[in-house]
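As noted in the main text, all predictions were made from sequence alone. Below is one such record, for Shwachman-Bodian-diamond syndrome protein.
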Amino acid sequence: MPVGINQPSNQIKLTNLAMVRIKKGKKRFEVPCYKNKILDYRNKIDTELDNILQIHNVFVNVNKGQTASKADLEKIWPGKQRDDIIRYILENGEIQTGEKERGAELERTKNEVIDIVASKLVDPKTKRVYTAGMIEKALNQLSSQAAAQPQHKPNPADAATDADKPKELPKWAGVRPGKDAKTQALFAMKALIAHQPIPVARMQMKLRITCPTSVLKQIVKTPPKPSQAEDANGPDKSPSNVKDTLLGFIETVQSQEIEGSEWETVGLVEPGTFKMLNEFIESQTKGRGNVEVLDMAVGADV
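Prediction:
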């Protein structure tokens, strides 16, 4: 006589899993997806459900293998086919991942933040870039300091004297899940520059720009947007002429002068804006303007 094994037939063991969950009509509905495919679906890279779903069904509890009843689905989505309901959940539901996946995602974000910071900061004296390991060590030092500092609750009685207090320096408390790596890297750079656990400054290029004075007031219909503008100053107000557009690329203007029929300015720019700046001046001056690199890596205080 065969011996029965107490193993529920509806138990589902899934790997590489990301659940997309939505709550409708006081009920929770879930669909199990491949975690590396759900973003492809939402970005319209792959919309084939069989490539996205681990199991082609709607559940109320994936871990227990409890599928949603036809009555519940019909009540919430009357007249809708199962695939239409699945697509609705995939597009509007909240992506849930396991603890290991969340840890791996946080580690990827952390590495991306460190790589961005390491590519944009230099030692102001030697102009040399730091290794990713040195940047990581410096950020860990800042997060340890932030954790050790006591948290003070705001006191309404102190509000009147807040204007007289020195501006509080940015505090780096580590990489946060669910936040964009570029935004976190920008804040990390501000914290490193403010606290200087190691000597750091923003890496910038020193350029000399020359342009005929005859085109400086020429109206620019669709001016390019320097990449640093929105990070540093919020919404960008488009310059109206060639000169204002060129100055918009420059973070620090060191000199400006006019000699005869030529305008010249020297300043510091973000390395990532050089190509756009060069293309802009070539198109606006028809080859009569010029961008010359004076120094590839300047340590500039911000």
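The chain has a mean pLDDT of 82. The radius of gyration is 28 Å. These features were considered when defining construct boundaries for the mutagenesis experiments described in Section 2.9.
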